[in-house]
Each structure stands twice: as structure tokens, then as C-alpha cells.
Amino acid sequence: PRRPCPQDALEVTGTFKQCKSNLVKEGFDPGAIRDRLFFRDDARKSYVPLTPGTFAAIRDMKLAL
To answer: This protein's superkingdom (predicted)?
Structure first.
């Protein structure tokens, strides 16, 4: 899959609202996003990197956020 480049700034509309449609399309798949992603791990009580395995568990509803 095509990996988008990291963004330095968010796109905004003419009235300075954030353009969220591209972010929604990208989702949070670590295989599709070049930026590092993290999620809150309640067991560790800290933020940990989102791995492809963790993403699959979330997608398959084996791990709740």
C-alpha cells in the first residue's frame, strides 16, 4: 500500500477549520501511516507504540481501547 508522507501541518479550510476527511480516510493502520502511532495501554498505564499486531487485535475486537 501507498504510505503517505508525514504532515508538518494540518490542512485548513478558508475559515481555518481543520480538514479531517483525509485523516479519516487514512485511519490509524500502522501499515498505512508513516508517522509513529501510540495508544493508551491501561495495563501499563502509559502510551505504547501501536504495532501491526496490536492494530489487528483492535480491528478484530480482541483489544478494546
So the answer is: Eukaryota
